[in-house]
């Protein structure tokens, strides 16, 4: 039987990157030269890959990408002072960062050329997917080498166990030595396994060379081979001059280019923070000559890549990057000006004002005449979820995402088509102040090019990030046509053309879909009727009588939506480049307007005569008769001479009308019908006393599983919607998975703010085909907890009342006792009370601050120089934990921030960067140790920076174990220590109950003034059984002020006894002088020291501190020539030991007798004796340490002076090692006397060095390495790590010791590993911030 062949149609390429629906394709077909040529589009994003095939040339053969800039600073390299290549032989330089010898091309070394070096870590340059891929490949290669080393070590151990020798002097020794050698071989195996488990890729550090020849352009060479041979590297000049780029390697395929700033003081290696920017650029501008259908919207346009995504932050934008991008766009460059900017970045904001938005509106749009297009955000479908900057700044074009029919099959592979409509997640307006927010819709998905490092030619992405560049490409077509036709325009003309000619898509908020041909026709016609430049002017609308003078009317609350609002509306024309423009055009402007409204509940005057001076008139809004739901309207202002061109300006009005109050605080909607992308909005006001709600959604009619979005939003003044938002994604079908007869039910419990209208937004996801019927119920609950005045009256606050959302409950631990009140204001509630602390919150002031001007790229367009404030904070951690640092005055402010920028870097004690953060606090796991935080705040005004020079840093440290607040049902139980805890209870409607608390035992690492921060656990539900065990958003935080610690028992008694034993004043004076002289011995010149020492020894021959100081002074120099001084050193040590242990005086070892048993500390006199004995023991330990050092040096000298082949050599070496072993054993015994736990090589740095030397002398390198690794894995906190701040510091020296031992073992793979890590762990200076 023959097979039937299916009819195969051509793949619908036009659906991969939609251009038909916007009329862009038809526009180019009709006007081939209006394809964007002559225009420049700036892409503010993660960076654009100049190696992407479709981003190489324009449609008419010009270079596509004409400049590439990293505005974030993540690729910055500080270049050191000029250096001179070594003469004689091939020219070389030595890198101070990596210690590599760099081989230079001889042709670079000519008279007058200068050379400057810098270095850059790959982790600052490589996007995470590339970094992960490179590290995985490197680990695979390392695993092979490590496996070979481990196999050899295991083989040596097996061979020894089977009677084979190991080739050491221990082979012919007795059983004890063989046991030691077996332990050594086992240690090698163990240490290799442990190091293998703890392998961490060190990353790469690239040396960077800047060569400035006497003539011609400076160029940069990056040692991408990591070998030091720069002769094969590709020299790159500034990209704007040469359009040159390179790649780090054939495996990573990561493209980079170069920018040079400030005469070579700084080099920027420009890479990519992600694939997003290339995809965005491809949508707006790519050109594929072979398959034009897959080209971008404006293939003739050129591009500028402005990287605002910081690679160090995983592509997050920073304020400084945004400021630099705005500055770049406001300037005219050698290639001309940027015509269109696209920014597919953004997020929620607490204000419509902010540094970046204001800069773009004034400098880029108004003065430079650039059109700025930005994504509206992907936080929908809730009302007011539009993001900044696109939906906030009126000078921009905010673009929402629309799913078109052509996308559905080739891009999304849907089984059945769904209606065209806005994507479910596309953010909706209005802005905070009622401004419309979303200007237009454009196709919100595309299959477009991505960077070569992605190892894929194209990728599907969707979002308003894709809609915005599609619209930007459409704008480029229009401007290309305008420039070709010599027609003037302004950014305001372009936006008005798009808004007035868009396709009506029945959007409830009046937003239309971009139409290029219609917009062009509008532009042509408006030029003919542009008297006084009326179509080129921005008409700024404000309502001065309303709070903060909003640009629209936005009413949500019950009071405001239940009464008439009549308020004045002020309209002011704003001309392009108004500051420096021609005054005649202002004089010429006079427009006769007719106002109309799109809804009967809005009234406005019929006519307005508007000139440059502006006009104020009243608008009346009466929402009182509206049904519950969303209502949107406009006041439209038409030019009476050109009504067919649409309105000159719109006044947006948005009403979110809540449902009437419910008697039982419960709302129900039994049958709500949904289809693909359908959105339902329910507005209700939580009653006073409510602090959480339970939302129940049931599927009552659905054949297949469908995805739904549930979004709950309350709006607070000048607060991001995300702070009060709860969002859920749920899947609904017809029945429950537990029972085929039960309707599927999803319950959500979440925190609410009483008296603030809440939107419950439900939407069937846009791609989920088929109809659905859903029932919805929301039930409000209230369990209020308030602090009452107890003790000193400082424990107060509330959770769940009108103060919800502030600081929660505050408990003063100094009170030691207090009470709380629990109240059920709405209904009968079940609850279980508890408070659990998991955070220690500390506050730090800066240890130093520095204000300095930034460099040339941070000179703002108005000529002012931006400056930076660098704040330095220091803190210690005595245990590994998770920390979250933040600066409260700037945290969580980006687009609303008045500052140009902020960045926070965390360094360990070796100056290695262990964390980079922006304005959003993030948690970071840190090991015990000392850390430095440096914060950079950038502003145009140094006075502003001075105001914050002592700003506090808040550091939240995660506790190792949660700590519960002791609570009791009665005051008596609390005061007498009765049974603690407060189990499940039921509160009747209106009932109040008291709960009592007592002080907690704060963790030992806390200090007075710290806060313990935790969560109030008071979950409940209705008494009918609808209890919940989790409330999203919680019911509030609880803070507990740590009081001063308890006094040590009997401390006062000890002090009083000590006073009774004080000598007379003359004796005290003599002893004080003696102690001062002893303390100053090290600082005195040699002759003076000898004089003072002789006199003191005569007066106090057996005074322990004097003998100890004498040995300390003498041993410091004597240990460097131990062969000459060993006899005297050992004599001094023995004398100090004899005096300390008592044998010099009594002949009896008092110290040994004391520590032979368990010391008595029951009485004050016993405690005094213990202190005395501890001082004497410390003196013995010090003397033994010096002896140990002497024997260690002697053994090393024997090792160096004798021949290994001589039998006598082995005997001498063995004797020296035995003497060292005996000294080591004695030191260890006394160092650990009394239970001291730090007398081990793993804890004591002095002992570690001696132990390692001993083991190396014996050839036991595995034991030595094992001890070093244990020490480095948990170094002491304090003076030791503080000395590790330089490459010669203690930890760095120990690390060097480890590398030496690895060389002894011949483990080259680990030697190279250590060398790579060393440059990372101990950089010469703090890493650059910006």
Automatic annotation (TrEMBL):
Gene3D superfamilies the record matches: 1.25.40.710, 2.60.40.3170, Peptidase S8/S53 domain (3.40.50.200)
Annotated EC: 3.4.14.10
Domain Tripeptidyl peptidase II second Ig-like: 825-1001
A molecular-function term among this protein's GO annotations: aminopeptidase activity
Active site (record annotation): 45, 276, 465
Biased composition regions of type Basic and acidic residues, renumbered to the chain: 1046-1065
Keyword annotations of the record: Aminopeptidase, Hydrolase, Protease, Serine protease
Region (Disordered): 1042-1067
Protein name: tripeptidyl-peptidase II
């Amino acid at each position: 039987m023959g097979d039937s062949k299916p009819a195969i149609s051509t793949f619908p390429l036009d659906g991969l990157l939609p251009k038909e629906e916007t009329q862009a394709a038809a526009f180019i077909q009709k006007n081939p030269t209006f394809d964007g040529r002559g225009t420049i589009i700036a892409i503010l994003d993660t960076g654009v890959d100049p190696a992407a095939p479709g981003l190489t040339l324009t449609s008419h053969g010009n270079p596509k990408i004409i400049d590439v800039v990293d505005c974030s600073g993540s690729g910055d390299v500080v270049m050191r002072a000029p250096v001179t290549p070594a003469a004689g032989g091939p020219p070389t330089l030595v890198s101070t960062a990596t210690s590599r010898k760099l081989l230079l091309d001889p042709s670079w070394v000519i008279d007058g050329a200068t050379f400057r070096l810098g270095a850059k870590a790959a982790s600052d340059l490589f996007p995470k997917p590339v970094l992960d891929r490179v590290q995985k490949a490197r680990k695979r290669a390392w695993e092979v080498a490590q496996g070979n080393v481990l196999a050899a070590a295991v083989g040596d151990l097996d061979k020894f166990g089977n009677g084979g020798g190991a080739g050491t002097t221990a082979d012919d020794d007795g059983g004890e030595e063989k046991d030691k050698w077996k332990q050594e071989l086992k240690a090698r195996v163990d240490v290799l396994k442990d190091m293998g488990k703890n392998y961490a890729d060190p990353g790469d550090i690239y040396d960077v060379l800047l060569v400035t020849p006497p003539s011609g352009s400076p160029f940069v060479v990056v040692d991408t081979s990591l070998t030091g041979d720069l002769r094969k590297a590709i020299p790159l000049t500034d990209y704007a001059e040469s359009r040159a780029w390179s790649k780090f390697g054939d495996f990573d395929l990561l493209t980079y280019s170069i920018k040079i700033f400030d005469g070579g003081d700084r080099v920027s290696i420009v890479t990519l923070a992600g694939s997003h920017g290339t995809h965005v650029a491809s949508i707006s501008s790519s050109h594929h000559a072979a398959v034009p259908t897959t080209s971008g919207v404006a293939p003739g346009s050129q591009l500028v890549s402005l990287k605002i995504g910081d690679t160090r932050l995983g592509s997050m934008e920073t304020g400084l990057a945004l400021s630099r991008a705005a500055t770049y766009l406001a300037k005219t460059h050698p290639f001309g000006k940027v015509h269109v900017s696209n920014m597919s970045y953004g997020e929620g904001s607490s204000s419509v004002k902010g540094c970046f938005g204001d800069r773009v509106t004034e400098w880029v749009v108004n003065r430079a005449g650039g059109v700025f297009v930005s994504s509206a955000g992907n936080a929908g479908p809730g009302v007011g979820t539009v993001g900044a900057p696109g939906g906030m700044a009126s000078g921009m074009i905010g673009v929402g995402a629309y799913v078109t029919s052509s996308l559905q099959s080739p891009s999304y592979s849907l089984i059945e088509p769904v209606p065209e409509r806005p994507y479910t997640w596309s953010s909706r307006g209005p802005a905070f102040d009622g401004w419309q927010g979303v200007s237009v819709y454009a196709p919100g998905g595309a299959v477009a090019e991505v960077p070569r490092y992605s190892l894929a030619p194209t990728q599907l992405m969707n979002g308003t990030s894709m809609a915005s560049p599609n619209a930007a490409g459409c704008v480029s077509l229009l401007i290309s046509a305008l420039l070709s036709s010599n027609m003037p325009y302004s950014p305001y003309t372009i936006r008005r053309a798009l808004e007035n000619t868009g396709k009506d898509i029945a959007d409830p908020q009046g937003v239309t879909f971009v139409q290029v041909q219609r917009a062009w026709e509008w532009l042509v016609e408006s030029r003919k009727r542009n008297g006084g430049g009326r179509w080129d002017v921005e008409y700024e609308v404000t309502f001065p009588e309303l709070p903060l003078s909003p640009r629209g009317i936005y009413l949500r609350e019950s009071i405001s939506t239940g009464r008439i609002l009549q308020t004045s509306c002020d309209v002011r024309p704003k001309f392009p480049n108004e500051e420096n423009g021609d005054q005649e055009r202002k004089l010429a402007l006079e427009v006769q307007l007719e106002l109309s409204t799109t809804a009967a509940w809005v009234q406005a005057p019929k006519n307005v005569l508007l000139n440059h001076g502006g006009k104020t008139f009243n608008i009346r809004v009466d929402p009182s008769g509206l049904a519950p739901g969303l209502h949107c309207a406009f006041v439209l202002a038409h030019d009476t001479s050109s009504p067919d061109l649409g309105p000159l300006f719109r006044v947006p009005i948005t009403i979110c009308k809540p449902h009437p109050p419910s008697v039982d605080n419960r709302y129900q909607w039994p049958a709500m019908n949904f289809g693909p992308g359908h959105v339902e909005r329910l507005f209700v006001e939580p009653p006073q006393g409510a602090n959480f709600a339970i939302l129940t959604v049931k599927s009552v009619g659905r054949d297949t599983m469908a995805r739904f979005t549930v979004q709950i939003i309350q709006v607070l003044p000048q607060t991001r919607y995300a702070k009060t938002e709860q969002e859920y994604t749920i899947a609904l079908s017809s029945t429950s998975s537990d029972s085929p007869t039960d309707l599927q039910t999803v319950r959500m419990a979440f925190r609410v703010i009483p008296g603030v209208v809440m939107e419950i937004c439900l939407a069937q996801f846009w791609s989920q085909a088929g109809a659905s019927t859903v029932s919805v119920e929301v039930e409000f609950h209230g369990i209020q907890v308030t602090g009452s005045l107890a003790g000193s009256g400082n424990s107060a606050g509330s959770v769940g009342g009108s103060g919800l959302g502030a600081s929660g409950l505050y408990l003063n631990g100094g009170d030691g006792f207090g009470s709380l009140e629990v109240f059920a204001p709405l209904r009968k509630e079940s609850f279980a009370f508890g408070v659990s602390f998991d955070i220690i919150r500390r506050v730090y002031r800066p240890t130093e601050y520095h204000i300095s001007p930034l460099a040339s790229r941070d000179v703002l367009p108005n000529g002012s120089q931006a400056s930076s404030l660098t704040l330095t904070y220091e803190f210690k951690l005595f245990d590994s934990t998770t920390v979250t640092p933040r600066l409260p005055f700037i945290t969580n402010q980006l687009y609303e921030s008045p500052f140009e920028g902020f960045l926070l870097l965390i360094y360990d004690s070796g100056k290695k960067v262990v964390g980079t953060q922006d304005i959003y606090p993030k948690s970071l796991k840190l090991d015990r140790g000392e850390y430095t935080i440096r914060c950079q705040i950038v502003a145009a005004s140094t006075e502003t920076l001075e105001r914050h020079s002592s700003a506090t840093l808040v550091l939240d440290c995660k506790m190792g174990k949660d700590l519960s607040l002791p609570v009791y049902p009665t005051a008596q139980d609390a005061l007498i220590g009765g049974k603690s805890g407060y189990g499940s209870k039921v509160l009747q409607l209106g009932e109040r109950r008291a709960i009592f608390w007592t002080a907690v035992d704060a963790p030992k690492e806390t200090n007075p003034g710290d806060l313990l921060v935790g969560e109030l656990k008071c979950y409940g539900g209705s008494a009918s059984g609808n209890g919940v065990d989790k409330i999203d958003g919680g019911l509030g935080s609880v803070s507990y002020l740590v009081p001063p610690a308890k006094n040590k028992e009997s401390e006062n008694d000890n002090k009083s006894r000590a006073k009774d034993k004080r000598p007379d004043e003359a004796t005290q004076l003599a002893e004080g002088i003696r102690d001062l002289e002893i303390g100053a011995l090290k600082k005195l010149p040699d002759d003076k020291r000898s004089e003072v020492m002789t006199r003191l020894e005569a007066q106090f021959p057996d005074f322990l501190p004097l003998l100890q100081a004498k040995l300390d002074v003498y041993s410091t120099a004597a240990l460097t020539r131990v062969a000459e001084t060993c006899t005297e050193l050992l004599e001094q040590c023995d004398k100090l030991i004899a005096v300390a242990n008592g044998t010099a005086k009594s002949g009896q070892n008092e110290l040994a007798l004391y520590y032979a048993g368990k010391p008595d500390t029951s009485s004050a006199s016993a405690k005094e004796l213990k202190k005395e004995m501890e001082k004497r023991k410390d003196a013995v330990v010090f003397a033994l340490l010096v002896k140990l050092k002497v024997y260690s040096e002697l053994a090393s000298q024997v090792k160096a002076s004798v021949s290994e082949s001589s039998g006598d050599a082995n005997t001498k070496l063995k004797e020296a090692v035995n003497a060292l072993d005996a000294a080591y054993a004695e030191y260890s015994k006394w160092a650990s006397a009394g239970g001291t736990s730090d007398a081990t090589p793993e804890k004591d740095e002095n002992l570690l060095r001696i132990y390692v030397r001993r083991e190396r002398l014996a050839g036991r390198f595995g034991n030595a390495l094992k001890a070093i690794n244990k020490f480095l894995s948990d170094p002491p906190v304090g003076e030791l790590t503080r000395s590790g701040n330089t490459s010669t510091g203690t930890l760095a020296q120990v690390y060097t010791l480890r590398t030496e031992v690895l060389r002894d073992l011949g483990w080259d793979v680990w030697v190279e590993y250590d060398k790579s890590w060393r440059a990372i762990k101990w950089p010469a200076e703090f890493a650059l911030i910006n």
